[in-house]
Amino acid sequence: MGIPEGETKPEEQRLGPVLRRRDQVQPGTTDQRLLDTEGDSEWVHTDPWRVMRIQSEFVEGFGALAELPSAISVFGSARTKPESPEYEAGVRIGRALVEAGFAVITGGGPGAMEAANKGAREAKGVSVGLGIELPFEQGLNPHVDIGVNFRYFFVRKTMFVKYAQGFVVLPGGLGTLDELFEALTLVQTRKVTRFPIVLFGTEYWKGLVDWLRDSVVAGGKASERDLLLFHVTDDVEEAVALVTKEVGR
């Protein structure tokens, strides 16, 4: 919509908190642009609109999860096979966490995530899946009772930490490592407190732990006490006992 005939373009324009002057003045008003049904739909791809979508994801996530009981987030590979020992361990961990009084939160996908959700569901606990929009995403697994899908990884990761009292990390790939190091960084920098992190599978995690100790800590890039930010175990009962003890349950 342009400037009405006989009127000149203003030198200054205020659009909410935004001030525009001279050549940056836009024709029409915000209401006119909102109500004008003509024009393209490119506006839904602009950064201001993305901010609104990000905000809406936080609101939806907070609303869906605010009344959860104490919970533990369980991570692991979507590629874990149902017939594998890792899958069975995930089922046992999900079941044991519910029996210890926790809800179980996963990424909602297949593999190790499905296993933990399955164990939680079999134990008649609260089984939560926080999915992510991906080109190859398979959707939420059938054992999820409360599911929320996200567009943005950083919103999803906020939900994992905000509504959990600890992490149990099964063998996984890049996504699992991303979530693990996000949690380690938050604990190291004291952005969160009393947040236990348990790595399940000593053989799988041994190379990473050795590298952290022999390269990262030895090279002065982290301190020796940072190795105390997590525990490594092969025992389901010990994993649950560690998260239970550290959150004061």
TrEMBL record:
<dbReference type="InterPro" id="IPR052341">
    <property type="entry name" value="LOG_family_nucleotidases"/>
</dbReference>
<dbReference type="Pfam" id="PF03641">
    <property type="entry name" value="Lysine_decarbox"/>
</dbReference>
<dbReference type="InterPro" id="IPR005269">
    <property type="entry name" value="LOG"/>
</dbReference>
<feature type="compositionally biased region" description="Basic and acidic residues">
    <location>
        <begin position="1"/>
        <end position="24"/>
    </location>
</feature>
<dbReference type="GO" id="GO:0005829">
    <property type="term" value="C:cytosol"/>
</dbReference>
<dbReference type="InterPro" id="IPR031100">
    <property type="entry name" value="LOG_fam"/>
</dbReference>
<feature type="region of interest" description="Disordered">
    <location>
        <begin position="1"/>
        <end position="35"/>
    </location>
</feature>
<dbReference type="GO" id="GO:0016787">
    <property type="term" value="F:hydrolase activity"/>
</dbReference>
<keyword id="KW-0203">Cytokinin biosynthesis</keyword>
<dbReference type="GO" id="GO:0009691">
    <property type="term" value="P:cytokinin biosynthetic process"/>
</dbReference>
<keyword id="KW-0378">Hydrolase</keyword>
<comment type="similarity">
    <text>Belongs to the LOG family.</text>
</comment>
<protein>
    <recommendedName>
        <fullName>Cytokinin riboside 5'-monophosphate phosphoribohydrolase</fullName>
        <ecNumber>3.2.2.n1</ecNumber>
    </recommendedName>
</protein>
